Amino acid sequence: MLLNCYQEELLEAGCDEAGRGCLAGPVFAAAVILPKGFVLEGLNDSKQLSHDQRTLLRPIIEQEALAWAVASCDHEEIDRINILNASFLAMHRAIEKLHTQPQYLVIDGNRFKTYPQIPHSCIVKGDGKYLNIAAASILAKTHRDEYMANLHADYPHYNWMQNKGYPTTAHRRAVIEIGLSPFHRKTFNVSDPQLDLFSKNA
Description:
Layout: E1 12-18, E2 27-33, H1 51-64, E3 67-73, H2 75-81, H3 83-97, E4 104-108, E5 120-123, H4 131-152, H5 160-163, H6 169-178
C-alpha cells in the first residue's frame, strides 16, 4: 500500500516525469500536492496501470489535489541540453507553476537538480511507494499521451497514437523508411538498424 507522503512536517509535493525514453516529442513532468489523509482506490505508479485506469484517475487527482501542475521541455530543448537536464527543467517548471508553494519535494528517481530554496529527497521507484509521486506520474503520463495523440493526426505514419513516441520496432522502421519528423529528437539514435533488439516493444 502506498504512503501518503515521505515526511509529514512540511507541505510536500511529489514530482515525476514521462517520456524520457521516447524518440520523439517533449518530456513532460508533473508536481502534485495531496491533502493529508488522501485516499484514492487504484492510485499507483502509472506504468502499472492501463490507459483506461489512468484516464479515470486523472480528473479525480486534478480535482482533489491541493495543487497540481504539468510542464514540459520540447524536443529542441532536449537536443540542446540533453534528456536528463530537460527532465529536471520540466520538473522545475511544474513546481514553479504550482499555485501553492511546497516546502519539500520528493522526486521519483535517484537524481535531481536542486530547486531553489526547497529541500528534496530522491526516491528510487518512488511512484510505487508514495501517493503524491504516483499522482504526479499519472498526470505527466496522461498529459503527454494526449499531446502525442494530437500530433498523430498530422504525422500518422509514425503511429504516435499507439506508441506515444517510444522506440517500438514499427516506429523505428517508419523513421528509416520515411525519415525524421520535425518532432523527433535528433540526438537520439532513432534509426538503429538492429530492429530485432526492439521487437519486444512493438
